[in-house]
Design a protein that fits this description.
Helix content is 59%, strand content 6%. With 167 residues, it is mainly α. The longest helix is centred in the middle third of the chain and has 25 residues. The N and C termini lie far apart (45 Å).
Length: 167
């Protein structure tokens, strides 16, 4: 008797659970940064996408502008962001990562990549690593991203993570 194919709902439940566990393990590897998940997410977005307004960040992160202002305030207190006048709209301000912010987020991403590399090396046998490599284009399709970088050797460039929580 052939194996029973899982339903899309069963696959979704299992994938959600597994991705959540992976994200938590990756966050645990960088717990010493003392940044909240929302602060890391916003900083990683600024690293990936560049300067943005508070309103743009709030929309992208699915939070209220007031909540985003609090997150940005905490990042500013840590010296991780800088604010500059908007080049075309004098009423707005752009937020971008400062040099300290860039270094902090790059360090977080590097630590996560190092942890994941170690986990893949230690926890997966060659057949499992091959299966993971084969699954990456499918996961990229689910994430809505193109398969760029999928065929290039080595780790993805900093800021090109798809770990789910940004940094």
């Amino acid at each position: 008797m052939p194996p029973i194919e899982p339903t899309p709902t069963e696959l979704a439940v299992e994938l959600h659970a597994v991705l959540g566990l992976l994200a938590r393990r990756a966050r645990a590897a960088t717990a010493a940064t003392e940044l909240t998940a929302s602060q890391r997410s916003v900083a990683a977005r600024l690293l990936r996408e560049g300067p943005a307004t508070t309103a743009d960040l709030a929309r992208a992160e699915f939070v209220r502008p007031q909540s985003m202002r609090m997150t940005l305030g905490a990042l500013e207190e840590r010296g991780m962001i800088a604010r500059t006048p908007h080049p075309t709209d004098g009423r707005q301000v752009l937020v971008e990562l400062s040099e300290d912010g860039l270094a902090t987020i790059a360090g977080i991403l590097r630590t996560k990549q190092d942890w994941l590399t170690s986990a893949i090396t230690a926890d997966l046998d060659p057949t499992q690593r091959e299966a993971l490599a084969t699954a990456l284009p499918v996961l990229r399709a689910l994430a809505g991203t193109e398969a760029t970088g999928a065929s290039t050797p080595g780790p993805p460039p900093l800021g090109a993570t798809g770990a789910g929580d940004g940094a």
